[in-house]
Structure formats: C-alpha cells, structure tokens
Amino acid sequence: MKELEDRIRRDGTVKPGNVLKVDAFLNHQCDVDLFDQMGTEWARLFADRHIDKILTIEASGIGIACMAARHFGNVPVVFAKKTQSINLDGDQYVASIYSFTKQREYPVIVAKRFLHEGEHVLLIDDFLANGNALHGLIDICHHAGVVIEGIGIAIEKGFQEGGKKLREEGYDIQSLAIVDSMDAEAGTIEFTSAQ
C-alpha cells in the first residue's frame, strides 16, 4: 500500500537492532485517516471471505482493527489482553508469547465468551516480524474452534522469518507494507511489493 510505505519513509525511524519506530502515526499517535485507508485495503484483499469478528492484541492492534471492522460490516473487534486483571472474569483462553520489542514473555488472554466455535475470524496486527504474537492468537483461535479466514498486517519485516513460516503453515497473510531491509546508520528503508 503506497500510502503506508510513503508514510513509513517520511515519518518512520530505523533504530539499531532492526527496530522500526512508527510511533508518529501507527502505535503511539494514531493517524485515523491512514487507518481507514488500511481498513479499506484489507476489505478489498479479503473481499471473498465471510468475517464474523476481528481478533487483535493490545495495544497497537486495537486502533487499526477497529477501523478495519467498519469495512467488514462493523463486525465486533476482540482484543487479547496482555495482563490479568479483576475485570477479566469467567473462563479464558490463554497463550504465552515472546515479545521482541519488550524482550520478555507474557500471557495473552481472551475471555471465552467472546469467541465461539465455528465463527470466522480475521486476525489484524500492526507488525509481523518473528510471528510470536500471531502464533499466540492462532493458538487461542484453535482452542476456541474458530476459523481463521486470514491475517492482515500493517507492516511486515520481510527479512525476518515470521511471514514465511506462517505462509508455509497455510495462512493467507496480507501485509500492507513489507520491509525488505533497513539501515539504522543511513536511515534507509527498502520495501518489497505487498503480496
């Protein structure tokens, strides 16, 4: 998606360790118009799929998932929580994932009452690098007995293995921007064509 690639080039920052900082528009400050364009594009890419719900993970996936939901008939958005709280009651699906950016493992939790066997779910997230967060969501989906119709990603780090592995596992991944390479010293970002 050219608009997203242009925005990454203009406002993204490459940090040492293959970190792409896009907090000016994606995962700290939110550009709602850009999110809406992203939702439009995912709706086009998954137009032949029946979607009952969108599943994401807090916090950065929530905004883009909510905007995308508008383009799928205002389906509900369910987000996996990263911490247990007194507000999480009843039976729960729990998976453990490792965060590259936080450098630690943590649980992701979804109340069982929000995912029902046989529902058709679209997974949405802001980044795909190693695929750990998505594998956690996929694990929850398998335990819930829902059908994963596809995976929508804002930015995929194509030089890392996550996307390749998930595609080999048979998942339809539609990434709006695929970063082929980044150079922190030069501040450059190169893209491959989205699939």
Automatic annotation (TrEMBL):
InterPro entries: PRTase-like, PRTase_dom, Pur/Pyrimidine_PRTase, Xanthine_PRibTrfase. It catalyses: XMP + diphosphate = xanthine + 5-phospho-alpha-D-ribose 1-diphosphate. Xanthine binds at L20, N27, K157. Pathway: Purine metabolism; XMP biosynthesis via salvage pathway; XMP from xanthine: step 1/1. It comes from the Bacteria. Its main location: cytoplasm. Residues 47-150 form the Phosphoribosyltransferase domain. It is found in: Cytoplasm. Its EC number is 2.4.2.22. The keyword Cytoplasm applies. Keywords: Cytoplasm, Glycosyltransferase, Purine salvage, Transferase. One of its GO terms (molecular function) is glycosyltransferase activity. Homodimer. Belongs to the purine/pyrimidine phosphoribosyltransferase family. Xpt subfamily. Converts the preformed base xanthine, a product of nucleic acid breakdown, to xanthosine 5'-monophosphate (XMP), so it can be reused for RNA or DNA synthesis. This is Xanthine phosphoribosyltransferase. It comes from Bombiscardovia apis. The gene is xpt.
